[in-house]
Design a protein that fits this description.
With about 350 residues, the chain is α/β, with parallel strands linked by helices. It contains 15 helices and 9 strands. It folds into 2 domains: about 90 residues, AF1104-like (Up-down Bundle); about 240 residues, Rossmann fold (3-Layer(aba) Sandwich), CATH 3.40.50. About 45% of the residues lie in helices and about 10% in strands. Helix 11 links the parallel strand 2 and strand 3. One of its GO terms (cellular component) is cytosol. Keywords: Hydrolase, Manganese, Metal-binding, Nickel. Its cofactor is Mn(2+); Ni(2+).
Length: about 350
């Protein structure tokens, strides 16, 4: 694992993955801050949905007992952190809270407790892919077509089982309509809204290669990101899709993404008439729903070194971490706000949208 090559150097002094500061140097190291307690509660509120998924994991012997073990152990560590922020190797942040949860699940033998719902949502989204792409292709104006594709990314990003509220919706089987969601986003201007600037550069600039850090399975990757990536391919760009090495919540892994693309491509390797020879799926080396770009795989580093556009998609990777990260090239952070704590930090609304574009002067 090595630093992402497009981070500015020296990385140690310039890069901090976590967006929201849970504490400041002046805070008492032995007393949890209000922000730490608030975020510990966010992760605690997700325990019931994780436990329910783990209980029904048929690949794990004694899954119900092990699911209960997970809930008790993780809940106990969260309470420890509330009582003493130093109790588990230092004060918690957005990376460590997720890392401990995944470690406990893996220690108990749970490899991918969201596999079933991911497969179901992928199948639904694959069936809708031709319709979504056809609607986009029918928009002749380049700027309007781009905005439609961006709205699709936001609509797809709703499929997030790391949000306790959305996890409840999906567990009830209510589902969420992708096309309705894309039309019913919160009104612009969004909490961070650089879309107009990006549109202008989209038309006048000619990026050669984009790296896209992808997020969730289902509608997110298939109906949101892939139509956007396909449009880039139509423009002659190279596109690298960077996906997790290991499962985390309902995030798509690189092996799953390769399988999805194999189902969407025709016998000529095209994606509804668009050549995919410049499309690559890369293993990011990541195993969390957030990402620390000081540690990515050698494979991704090699594929990314000459990119001139970095896109980080999703609340975990692009908002809760890396929102303010700077790169040697143009960058875009895009995602939907699905925790009220994030909305309050940004001064926006729940289910608000973040479209944070940073242009690097050449």
């Amino acid at each position: 694992m090595i630093p992402f090559p497009l981070l500015p150097t020296p990385i140690e002094s310039n890069y901090r993955p976590c967006t929201i500061p849970y504490r400041f140097p002046c805070d008492n190291p032995k007393i949890a801050t209000p922000t730490e307690i608030s975020w510990i509660n966010v992760f605690a509120n997700s325990i019931p949905s994780f436990k329910k998924r783990a209980e029904s994991d048929t690949t794990v012997p004694d899954a119900p007992a092990k699911a209960e073990n997970f809930a008790q152990r993780y809940g106990g560590i969260l309470e420890d952190w509330k009582r003493d922020p130093q109790s588990h190797g230092g004060p918690p942040d957005g990376v460590s809270l997720g890392r401990v949860r995944e470690q406990i699940l893996r220690e108990l033998g749970f490899r991918d407790i969201f596999k079933k719902v991911k497969d179901e949502e992928n199948a639904k989204a694959i069936s809708l892919f031709p319709e979504v792409v056809s609607l986009s292709d029918a928009i002749e104006d380049e700027g309007k077509r781009l905005e439609n594709l961006v709205r699709g990314v936001f609509a797809g990003n709703i499929f997030d089982l790391g949000s306790a509220q959305l996890a409840e919706v999906f567990s009830r089987g209510d589902g969420i309509s992708f096309l309705a969601s894309s039309q019913n986003l919160v009104t612009r201007p969004w909490v961070i809204d650089d879309l107009d600037n990006f549109q202008a550069n989209w038309i006048k600039k000619r990026w050669n290669k984009a790296v896209i850090f992808v997020d969730n399975s289902g509608a997110d990757i298939i109906l949101g990101v892939l139509p956007f990536a396909r449009e880039m391919l139509r423009r002659g760009m190279q596109v690298v899709l960077a996906a997790n090495e290991l499962p985390s919540i309902n995030d798509v892994t690189y092996t799953e993404l390769r399988e999805i693309l194999s189902q969407l491509k025709d016998e000529n390797g095209q994606l509804l008439g668009v050549d995919t020879s410049k499309l690559v799926v890369a293993n990011s080396g990541n195993d969390l729903a957030v990402i620390d770009l000081s540690r990515v795989s050698q494979e991704l580093a090699d594929l990314s070194s000459d990119a001139d556009l970095v896109i980080i998609e999703g609340m975990g990777r692009g908002i809760e971490t890396n929102l303010y990260a700077q790169f040697k090239c143009d960058s875009l952070k895009i995602g939907m706000v699905k925790h009220i704590e994030v909305a309050e930090f940004l001064g926006g609304r729940l289910y608000d949208c973040v479209f944070n574009y940073n242009e690097v002067e050449s």
